[in-house]
Amino acid sequence: MMSLPVPNSITSRLPSFAEARRVVEGYAATLSPTPPELLSLLDAAGLVLAEDLRADRDFPPFPRSTRDGFAVRAADVFSVPARLRCIGEIKAGVSVEDSAILVAAGECAEIMTGGPVPRGADAVVMVEYTERSGDAIAVRRAVAAGENIVAQGAEAQRGATMVARGTRVNHAIVAVAAAVGRAEVAAHQAPRVAILATGDELVDINLPPGPSEIRNSNSYSLAAQVQASGGEPIILPVARDQPDELAVLLRKGLESDLLLITGGVSMGKYDLVEQVLASFEPNIFFTGARIQPGKPVVFGEVKFGEARKPFFGLPGNPVSTMVTFQLFARPVLEALSGAQPLPLPFAQATLKSDFVTGTGLTRFLPARLEGAQEQPVVERVRWQGSGDLMAVARANCYVVVPPDRERFSAGETVTILMI
Ligand code: AMP
Ligand code: MG
Predict the structure, then answer these.
(1) 403 Cβ closer than 6 Å to some ligand 1 atom
(2) Residue-level pLDDT at 98
(3) Nearest ligand by distance to the CA of 316
């Protein structure tokens, strides 16, 4: 849990977290999204709209009652109690135009939530404020004109854009598409994201690890993050720490829309990724950021003619891989998906316990947000550093520590990043 101060000479050339994030966002803004395809509505869920969803009619298509009660003329119930005669009932699905119901002075009509307000009426009195005896309705509370009614077209006028292209299709967008009668929508194809784990110590999850071997968890955590971000993960075989093998697999990975490499980007003798990538003559945008975990993160692109293939070299420590994916790779994946840029999900919470940390880096410390709605409280989870994947399994957020802060006290408000 102890973190040493980082010597300035090493880190000062590296961009800060905010600078590195801006580099990624700026780059993402220049990318073209994957081509659109017409998909059935539920197949488009999780992908990004390649077209605007427009209102095919007014929403609501008729003045809609928001309450169960009685449709009235507001002027009739100006002074209460008022006695009205109920002339009928508005059933869901009955056209108001066609129905014989016309509310005249001294009259009302029974109506249900969501029902079309009949001609003549201009307000709805909630059933709770009425008493009924046969056709005679006593109204105990006045209503203003328009009360408990959503006017025709108030949510969207016919032809208006209800959801803009570039929006990821979630359940609410599915609801809008269904409401405007779109059984099929145009969505951008899921970007293909190649995932390449590197390291002689790694074995795949279906093989028994030797005494000094580690199971390859990063390819799978990354694949899950890619999937959750609307990408199609393609897990490549693990690359040994051997330049020729690495070069072959890097070339394979660069066939996808985005390449994520994990491991081999630190300063160790067998950290070969940058060296082998150099043979592809990449543009390198950064080779690290003043963050922890994830300091050695690499971001660049390789050009094949017109095609630009972005790649990230994510540090191999499991927590570093997860954090740097979220901070840096995700915006690139979003842009390739056709999505409008999204801010990171930062929030504020009250810190539960004191802690001390080093300065010089923006830190993302695994933590759990708990507590009631009125007072969210965040507590760091126990962790042994960037290799401790259990810590993130216990966490639901990170406490974000700015580079100039060292001491934190219980009760103070801190920034968190939701996972
Ligand atoms: P590296 O970035 O290659 O120096 O690796 C840093 C640490 O992360 C080492 O302890 C590796 O064993 C571990 N590591 C690297 N790649 C993976 C992986 N794919 N899955 C799990 N642990 C990994
Ligand atoms: Mg390694």
Answers:
(1) no
(2) 58
(3) 1
